[in-house]
Specification:
Blueprint (H helix, E strand, L loop, with lengths): L3 E7 L26 E9 L19 E4 L10 E3 L2 E5 L3 E5 L5 E3 L3 E10 L13 E11 L10 E4 L6 E4 L2 E7 L3 E4 L1
Antiparallel strand pairs: 1-2, 1-5, 2-3, 3-6, 4-5, 6-7, 8-9, 8-12, 9-10, 10-13, 11-12
């Protein structure tokens, strides 16, 4: 089976909430408002030998909703014409199939963060009474049979790349970022 190396998506608009009013907003950061999903309209093909390494899974099909890295719509080299953009396979994060099934792309893994309450006996310290992020999470979707869906995993600190996918906040990371299954 041949796997895609580049994906062409249709993105109706580049940014969410483009207009912020009639004043200059110096805090405006386009990466915070970039649209990160679109409809897959075409996939280019490469020879299978380019994707035969272990851990690679092809889950992208025409008609899927594709979530991708926020820089895609900001990079002029990714813009084809009108509403069409090229997404390199390594920039593709997850797909939503027509039945609503959420699947990671390639070697990615979708993990819901686990937050813990910080307590120190009976003393409540306001700064520490909030929830603390950990390097643990619940696997929402995985292509790797060694990392099953629903398992709790421990992952590397730099693997925390938080995205909002289908209305849920989750980390998108590589399978290799998992240190162990708890």
């Amino acid at each position: 089976m041949q796997s895609p190396s580049r994906i062409i998506v249709r993105v109706p608009k580049r940014f969410n909430d483009e207009a912020k009013g009639f004043y200059i907003d110096t805090s405006y950061k386009p990466e915070h408002y970039s649209v990160i999903c679109g409809e897959v309209v075409a996939t280019a093909k490469r020879l299978p030998r380019d994707f035969d390494k272990p851990g690679f899974y092809d889950t992208v099909s025409i008609g899927d909703k594709l979530y991708f890295h926020y820089l895609v719509v900001l990079d002029p080299d990714c813009h084809l014409f009108e509403d069409y953009y090229i997404v390199d396979y390594f920039q593709a994060l997850a797909t939503v199939k027509s039945g609503g099934e959420l699947l990671p792309v390639g070697e990615h893994l979708l993990v819901e963060p686990i937050k813990e309450e910080v307590t120190h006996g009976t003393i409540i310290i306001p700064e520490m009474s909030k929830k603390k992020e950990t390097n643990r999470g619940l696997v929402i979707s995985s292509n790797d049979p060694e990392i099953p869906n629903g398992s709790t995993v421990l992952f590397e600190e730099h693997a925390k790349f938080l995205n909002e996918i289908e209305g849920r906040e989750m980390y998108v990371m590589y399978n290799s970022n998992v240190l162990g299954i708890l």
